[in-house]
Design a protein that fits this description.
Jelly Rolls, 3 domains, 12 helices, 36 strands, globular, signal, B-gal_1-like, Beta-galactosidase
Amino acid sequence: MAGVPIWSARLCSALLIIFFGCSEARSFGIDYENDTFVLDGKPFRYVSGSIHYSRVPNQYWKDRLTKMFAAGLNAIQVYIPWNIHEPFQGQFDFSGQQDVVAFLRLTHSIGLYVILRPGPYICAEWEFGGFPAWLLKGNNDIQLRSSDPRYIKAVDQWFDVLLSEIAPLLYVNGGPIISVQVENEYGSYFACDYDYLRFLRQKMIDILGNDVVLFTTDGDGVGYLRCGTLEGLYTTIDFGITYDPAQNFNVQRKWEPRGPLVNSEFYTGWLDHWGESHSHTDAAAFAKSLDLLLAYGANVNMYMFEGGTNFGFWNGAEYPPFKAIPTSYDYDAPLSEAGDITEKYIAIRQVICKYYPPPPIPIPPSTPKFAYGKITMNLVSTIPDYLEKYTPGGPIKSKYPINMEEIDHYYGFVMYRHILKDNVSWPTTLDIMGVRDRGYVMINQIPFGIIEREKNTTVNIKGVIGDYLDILVENQGRINYGDNMNDNRKGLITNVTHNGDALTDWLIYPLLENITLVQSFNLKHSYPRQNGLLSTPALYTGQLVVPKKAPHPMDTYFDMSLWTKGQVWMNNFNLGRYWPAAGPQIRLYIPKPVLNQGVNTVVMLELESSPCMHDTNCFVTFMDQPLINGTVHTSVGHHHGKLSHHGYLPSV
């Protein structure tokens, strides 16, 4: 590229707009004759990195963006997850952590351009690929990512709101957004509905105008681009480490004979799954490949540059087979989950500095971490003990089980209760084919086994008339990619059968998504019942005391190595899921903004087996180092279910 530093032009441009306003027309477009983007009439190339504002605490947005700028990037790429902004149909949220406008303005003030990917589908290993789960309510046969009128109506209303928010932030209007993606890797989806793509293209033109670069992204294979591209949209591709850029870009050239070469997702690492080893991409190999791409003249976006965290219930899942994404979305990115500088970051910066002058700021330091040590955990209650407290709206009565979407309970946990109408002798098989995704079967709080989606769907039970048959179901995250996204209902989606007969008359308890909102934990309780390796799902609480002086609080890590599987909250903030019994993630990241000086309250929902059955082990530990590459146990899900299926007489 020409000799003007990539940071210099855009920084001066940003400062001029901030302090003096837009004195002349701004433009961003494509020069097909010279195979380049043009910014205000001059050749332009971006070296970009992906960051998801939904995965980074808003108090840390500036820290992460500044580090990206200091790496030599001149742009960021960002997805907009529909489901965090419209959690219920017609109810929009652009405040606090959801304030995407503030995020984009902050990006602009730092001197970075924005490549925007508003969806409506984003994938991103995010819950339901960014779709709100209410799309499924009452629409058992809805066809997502198509011209289905029900889907189009919802997208139309969402884009009316979203695109109106971002239009003032387009580069031509004085903002940082230089290009906008239409859909997302649509060529990987079975629908191949060009009318749907035309609708999205026209919707964006109607609200954003004709002078914004609209583009698509697909894999670097002819089969992907056949259905992923459309006239009027610039075709880009994505691929990982390569040693022959010409071969990869030959595919783009079949659709775009002239114009800039673009890799919209140059993979710095890869995603993880529970029960599989942590993904790792060699820093030197990645840097060498980046060097080749830049030498070839390509525009590059590195996915991810900062991975972040799937706080709460926001992780996605892949299928088939069903594999949930862990809480950490570290991605082996140049900036770690906690925003720390890595070897890969330094290697990338060195490559960029071969082509452009060093950035005008030094590399910011990593955020400090602190090991706060052990705290004791205490039993609050089992889940069956206080169902009414954990479901303040009370149960829903139904002849047959109802999925979570139909009761407006989209995330977390739901308890299905049936009161036995007959004596059930041992061993009697209960068949629960339609569990989405993992269920804990109990009779009067005694655990009888775990059922799993498409793995272990039967369990042996025994009981007498009047006993409570409880099935606590965990929604482990909706499928975010592939042809099965329409099959994303959660809870129990089919009948529960006993000796071939469907059980009727159910009480359905949607547990609070933030179970820590229960007003009092001073409850009388029974102790969890044990059966083999399992114990009754239960809540535990403890207090972390943080020094009341600077520099505290600091980032820390929640070590779960003695626990099995569950969910954890800190000061009412949902840190996410833990599952050290599966791995590879053993410790959860706790960012500084979640903590207070003084007393901090921890609440844990342990689903399977608590170390508190042995008093000396009833604790958790706060560490100053992550552990996301721990030992994996691929058979953990089968183990409990197999024991339950073959059966052993519970101790009552």
